[in-house]
Amino acid sequence: MRTHTRLVVVLFCTAWLLLLFRLDSIPPGFQHDQTFDSLNALEVVGGHFPIYFPANFGLDPLFMYAAAGVFRMIGGHYVWGIRFTSAIFAMLGLAFTLIFARRYFGRGAALFATALTAGSFWFLFAGRLGLEPIALLPAALACFYFLARTELRPSFPDYLLAGVMAGVANYTYLAARTLYALPLILLCYEAALALLARVRGRAWPPQARPRIAGPLVMLASMLLVSGPLLAYLLTHSAQADGRIGELSGPINAALGEGNLLPLFNNFLDLARTLLWDGSPWLPFHYAVPGRAVLQSIWAVFFVVGLVITLARLGRRRDFLLLATLSLGLGLTLLTSTDAIHMRSIYALPLLFIVAVRGAAAAVAFGRRQLRRWCLGRGVDPRVAPASSPAIQRTASAVVLVGLLSWQIADTAVAYFRDWATAERTQRIYNADFRLAARHLDQIAGQDEIFIGTDRQIGLDSQTYALYEPLRGDVNWYRLPGNPPLPERGGAIYLGPTTADIPPVLHLLLAAGAQREDLRDSQGRALMWMVRAAPEVLRRAQSGAGLQPLALPVTYESALRLDAIGWQDHEAQATLATQWTALGPWPRSADPGTPLLQPKMGLSITDRSGYRWLYMDVSLMLPVHNVRAGLPMLETTAVTLPSDMPAGSYELYLVLYDDKAGPLTMAQGSDPFRLTPIPVGTVEVALRPLTDAPAPPFGGGEIEGGTSLHAAGRWESWASLIAGVSTDLHISWQAQQQLDTADLSFRTRAYDEKMNLLWQQIANPEIALPRLWEAGRTLRLSHAVKPQEGAPGATTVRVAVCAEQAGITLGCATADGVQVISQPPVMALSQPPEHAVGARWGDILTLVGYDLNWSDSGPALTIYWKAGMASSGPLKRFVHLLAADGRIVAQSDEPLYNNGIPVTHWRNGEYVVDQPQFASPQVAGVQAVCVGLYDAATEERLPVVTASGEEAPDARICFH
Asked: Are 449 and 475 in contact (CB under 8 A)?
């Protein structure tokens, strides 16, 4: 007895030492699950006492309250405190494992099964990390112990206590919900045994009724204890146990579709994870890749013990063992093995109990074989040394102690060396942020701190705070995006070495910033650190060529553009932009989707408005989490067309996202508007001599000189508007070096008989190079304003020719050009029947409409007033809606005014629009809705009502 007690003390002391050894630093920090648990515990410390914690898919309260008590006792030290809470529950679990195993074995075998549990990687992992599932272990084992006590004689107090402990278990972890099935399984088992006895002609067993009533008592007490939690879960189903829906795919496939393959695959994965290989899912989060739950010898003994248990199902304690083991592994079977160490936590000691049963059977089998061998050779087993009971006991003890020592040593090496110090574990458990906290605490000075993360900013910042840094004034930003700049003084930037250094930090490094790597105890670089003094920041901004805007441009409540820098290196240009954060990005992503990625539309146009370049750029600014007031710097590489002439161009920057389109803009005291505002002027140098882009339309040259070749046209020239200046863009290629001193261009129009109708000078506004080198192609803009004539369309031939000293060097021509003469209507003869006043930015205004109903359907007339010219073609849609909002008829057409597209409507011009419907005879129309959308992108243009409110669904509706 004394020996057994000493061994128990040694076992528990050894387990306690393994659990507490470098508890604060192995593993080096928190994975996000521990962060959630710690924050929940701090919520309790702060005086909030919820019965359920909805964060992280829903967490039960017992572990959080226990951790809160530890935090309050030790006054902080959150990493150590949350893990110490785990260690306490782990030791309680070991105690109940020992007394439960005694129901199956003698004292020695029960102690050995408990020692195997304590020496397993799974137990060490769950008992040290500060995760709430470990609290389920002692509660579930206590429940099983009280049930095992009812094997020989049913006892209602034991059933009652089993139910109480199962009820308590439901306050620990989601996997405890499986325990609700246990009393029902036992009830069915007892009923089946009683029925089988009656079928065999035996009398009704005298203990049948209490054995059937016992599980009902257990279920009632379980429901009573867990009732408050159940009531909460039933009334807060949207918050509670959110993980269930995420993990129920295989069972849904089996029940809903009859597809058993996912369950079969899970069964194979579970067997592999338990017996010969680790789960391939989430390695290093919960295990060493390739390491099974049971080492090879215990895996073999487990299979033997499982067969023995199955053969003894008629015995109640064996049925209880199999039922509890099945429930413990069942949740993993129905979901996946990615987190078996948590979901099947209470199955851990049961696995080793079954394995010890197999080992005991193997030892008994070996003894019998030895006895038979002795008898077969005429040797008395009682005198043979090898068959002596004392020798056999000693040999068995030596072998078992050796196996146990091997397991503990193997587990210690696997946990403390192979797993805890692995680089992936270091990153998963936020060693980099803990290293950063320690390093920053040692740095003197007031430099502003910026830490980048490529994971979850909110949780990473909270995890960092739980490391109790002295420098808690940290700005967080999302990698690989650019960080902000400090408001004043210097800055320290940190980020994990798994992420590239952002472009802005490369600018700082080029300006003299200092970089170093933060290394762990193994010498691995986990974080990079860039430290920039104030003068470095100034040099970097100066090196980017930043010039303040005379009037900063504001993009809604999110950003303000303060300065731009333009550097043209001929082969490629670089745009630098400096911003100030005003607030978070004003649009939210849909639930369950990633954050919206802000984008920038970059346009470069000449003075005529011709767009030479458009780029969609994903912004690298930290717009979702940056502190208001912080400046930000962005650099964008710009590749310009090789045929772009040198000169000054206007720069437009539009900010937008893929969900809701562009942000409105304002400059100075002007109101916000959707129309892009030019933010500055950029100087473009002559591009290197390379192949120029091919125009989409041929040049249609006529005979002339050979110095300039019209390589093609960038517009079709299908129609021109009389009295409206239109820019025609032609690619001209010099066939030989050309002095441009007196080079000019002229546009002529001819009728069908080649009679000259009109002509005008069409020199480009951009200055040509003095010497136009041979082979260079330049795309030139020629302004053409056809003469007005009688209303209608005239077909002409248009030629744009280059001339020098009275000699034609080359021409670009187009036949069949329609010149449309349509005088603009600058005032309505009478106002519309119904005034509207809705505005699509400063492009178009819906002045009003006339609407008449007849048997043939609606007769709708829309009155538009043009503002600034649209930068691209627009389409107008009209929806006829039924009472339920359903579209019963629609008109969807480009906006034209007698053949003149909306891009050529003149400012202040009124246009009468009469939509035609494909199905004019419609009934039940309750409303008419009008809207505009971009013909290229098919995105609706936002519209505001006359009162200034944005109309829903980007359309104006009237009845």
From this structure: yes
